[in-house]
Amino acid sequence: MTARTYGRHAEPTARQVRLGHVLASLRDGTGQTKRDVARALSWSESKVNRIESARIGISEDDLTALLAYYKVTDRGLRAYISHLKKRGNERGWETKVRDIVSTAYADLIGYEDDASDAYAAQAIVIPGLLQTSRYAGAVIDQHMPDIAEEEREERLAIRAKRQEIFKRPNPLVFWGVISESVFRHVIGSREIMAEQLGHLLEMCETYPHAINIQVLPEEAASHAVLFGPFVILSFPERWEPDITYLEGLTANRFLEEPSEVQAYSRFYKRLMTDSLTGAESFELIKNYRDTYSKG
């Protein structure tokens, strides 16, 4: 049957991309190459590649044939794949901001909506999901000094809307390791820093089961390999692989290869081990907040 495209100008939704990841993971689990699958199902290798990369959709008949070839009999897994496929065309609010932010950032928003946990490491600024409007504005002003005021306000609105994820019935569980140096960087002004750190403490108290912060002390040796911020996203279904989001000055990108994601997962566990406890971190942040509040 003819594969369905998503349209010449339409980007695949986060669920469509995740469906491709799940199908690729199933293939890897069987030890089959894309060429093996293509030959067995009388498809082109390009078709397999495009389905797994979410560049085209997959029909019900093709999906049924593929799952049969992979010998997928688990009812839960089949139901989950069917769910991803049926909801794949549903476009969340992230599709409305693709003209404002990068494709990777828009994808991150889509992934956050369905993720169960986020493991973030930050050595430069407060994580975006926990930033105040004034702090976020000061960060944007440094990254994009020539930005138009309208776009600046749009980006701030997007960041604020992302934070609503903690208010949903099943909130995203956020695990954050923040380098102590982040609290020494005066972003905007001392007043903005006091407000930001106060907000961070308030968020931890308001959402104690959803927001978990640990501070990586300045003397921690693992700073030597914390080259930049990253986030590992985990999803509620055990069949769906984790993904890693890397932030850069000029571009952001995702890592999907299991070996790369596992490397970041191991590193994150090391960061947590080297960090202060939640209670110790809370007190340290409070001390920095009080210092900034004194002017």
- Rg (C-alpha, Å): 21 Å
In CATH, the architecture of the largest domain is: 2-Layer Sandwich
The structural class is alpha/beta
Span between termini: 68 Å
Number of domains: 2
State the helical fraction: 40-55%
**What's the β-strand tally?**
6
Tell me the number of helical segments per DSSP (H or I, 4 or more residues long). Answer: 12
Provide the CATH topology of the largest domain: Endonuclease, Chain A
Largest sheet: 6 strands, mixed
Give the averaged pLDDT, no decimals: 90
User: Per the principal axes of the C-alpha atoms, what is the gross shape?
Assistant: elongated
Kindly estimate the percentage of residues that lie in beta strands according to DSSP.
Answer: 5-15%
CATH class of the largest domain: Alpha Beta
